[in-house]
């Protein structure tokens, strides 16, 4: 089971590390290994959220997600996106950005450093919206009930998450501008860029949310049609065209999942810039990590982990919220990547152990109920 699920990840790891040695020697090997671990730690929340969607898909589409989907994730988000960030922020062409990344790494590093405030504002706002929309939704299962219950009531206010996100962006930009002027105004001209990048992150989230909602509605429509076809087939005695209907529904779900997966890739890519500015090593390291995240997603689904440990999704979204805050803070202050990774791991581990305790309490309660029923039966029998 383990080898079947993680086999491709093991193979890609071996090839990626060998390629890293040939490209950058043992230093390259170390950087790729660190980036792989960084991507896995930062994107565990990605795997948990993805698993919630992927569990509705059959084995065939799970395999498509692991093959075709990973090409989109690795080459699109882990290779093209870092170059696009530099090209857009430096206002140069993508070809020139690639040339600088390969031939003039010092200048490329300076461009990345200059672009960091806008990168952090964009990614921070995007992830903050994911977190806010999660905690403002009224859910049947609550992890930190003392916090989530009142927040769910506040969530009934229309557009509250957007308003809060804009206030946070405004405070971040004003703080950035104030500190920049106090330190000589080196980055004072970047304040407007931070605001624009943050708004762009918010708009991107709203677009992604709109697309996700569209795909989800399409999926629900296809599932309803499939259910009606099954009922009609049962009444008429005809064979149910399940393959065609399931295929359509699974296709829309696959598109929906790709949109979600792409949105969660920002944190890993942005975090990787703190490790290296070499796009080859970055693509190798993040690509290996992306494979493990995808394999882990399938593993969580096949093991039924999300059903057994109900607070994992909560922990993953709290980790996203923490990462969003960290990114916004790094607009002005430097925070070590180890802290960024550990925060997510701690929150998810906490939610896991909370789930274990919940399961133990439920099992103990069921045991007491069973014992009480047995005693009642014995008493009535006597």
TrEMBL record:
<feature type="coiled-coil region">
    <location>
        <begin position="212"/>
        <end position="239"/>
    </location>
</feature>
<protein>
    <recommendedName>
        <fullName>DUF475 domain-containing protein</fullName>
    </recommendedName>
</protein>
<feature type="transmembrane region" description="Helical">
    <location>
        <begin position="6"/>
        <end position="35"/>
    </location>
</feature>
<feature type="transmembrane region" description="Helical">
    <location>
        <begin position="194"/>
        <end position="215"/>
    </location>
</feature>
<feature type="transmembrane region" description="Helical">
    <location>
        <begin position="240"/>
        <end position="257"/>
    </location>
</feature>
<feature type="transmembrane region" description="Helical">
    <location>
        <begin position="315"/>
        <end position="333"/>
    </location>
</feature>
<feature type="transmembrane region" description="Helical">
    <location>
        <begin position="64"/>
        <end position="90"/>
    </location>
</feature>
<dbReference type="Pfam" id="PF04332">
    <property type="entry name" value="DUF475"/>
</dbReference>
<dbReference type="InterPro" id="IPR007427">
    <property type="entry name" value="DUF475"/>
</dbReference>
<keyword id="KW-0472">Membrane</keyword>
<keyword id="KW-1133">Transmembrane helix</keyword>
<feature type="transmembrane region" description="Helical">
    <location>
        <begin position="157"/>
        <end position="174"/>
    </location>
</feature>
<keyword id="KW-0812">Transmembrane</keyword>
<feature type="transmembrane region" description="Helical">
    <location>
        <begin position="269"/>
        <end position="294"/>
    </location>
</feature>
<feature type="transmembrane region" description="Helical">
    <location>
        <begin position="339"/>
        <end position="356"/>
    </location>
</feature>
<feature type="transmembrane region" description="Helical">
    <location>
        <begin position="115"/>
        <end position="136"/>
    </location>
</feature>
<keyword id="KW-0175">Coiled coil</keyword>
């Amino acid at each position: 089971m383990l080898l079947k699920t993680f086999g491709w990840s093991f193979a890609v790891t071996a090839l990626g590390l060998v390629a890293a040695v040939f490209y950058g020697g043992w230093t390259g090997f170390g950087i790729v290994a660190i980036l792989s671990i960084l991507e896995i730690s930062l994107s565990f929340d990605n795997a948990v959220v993805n698993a919630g969607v992927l569990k509705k898909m059959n084995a065939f589409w799970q395999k498509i997600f692991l093959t075709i989907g990973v090409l989109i994730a690795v080459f699109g988000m882990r290779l093209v996106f870092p170059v696009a960030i530099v090209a857009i922020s430096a206002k140069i062409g993508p070809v020139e950005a690639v040339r600088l990344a390969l031939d003039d790494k010092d200048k490329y590093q300076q461009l990345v450093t200059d672009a960091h405030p806008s990168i952090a504002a964009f990614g921070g706002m995007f992830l903050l919206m994911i977190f806010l929309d999660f905690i403002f939704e009224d859910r049947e299962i609550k992890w930190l009930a003392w916090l989530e219950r009142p927040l769910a009531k506040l969530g009934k206010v229309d557009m509250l998450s957007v308003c809060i996100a804009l206030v946070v962006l405004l405070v971040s930009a004003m703080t950035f501008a104030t500190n920049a002027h106090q330190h000589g105004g080196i980055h004072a001209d970047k304040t407007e860029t931070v605001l624009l990048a943050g708004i762009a992150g918010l708009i991107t989230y709203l677009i992604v949310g709109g697309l996700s909602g569209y795909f989800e509605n399409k999926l629900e429509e296809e599932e309803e049609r499939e259910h009606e076809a099954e009922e009609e087939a049962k009444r008429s005695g005809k064979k149910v065209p399940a393959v065609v209907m399931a295929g359509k529904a699974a296709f829309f779900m696959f598109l929906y999942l790709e949109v979600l997966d792409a949105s969660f890739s920002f944190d890993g890519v942005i975090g990787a810039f703190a490790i290296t500015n070499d796009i080859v090593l970055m693509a190798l390291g993040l690509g290996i990590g992306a494979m493990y995240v995808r394999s882990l997603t399938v593993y969580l689904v096949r093991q039924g982990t999300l059903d057994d440990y109900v607070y994992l999704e909560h922990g993953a979204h709290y980790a996203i919220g923490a990462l969003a805050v960290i990114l916004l803070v790094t607009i002005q202050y430097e925070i070590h990547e180890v802290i960024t990774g550990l925060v997510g791991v701690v929150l998810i581990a906490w939610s896991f152990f909370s789930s274990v305790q919940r399961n133990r309490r439920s099992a103990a309660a069921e045991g007491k109920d069973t014992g009480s029923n047995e005693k009642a039966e014995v008493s009535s029998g006597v």
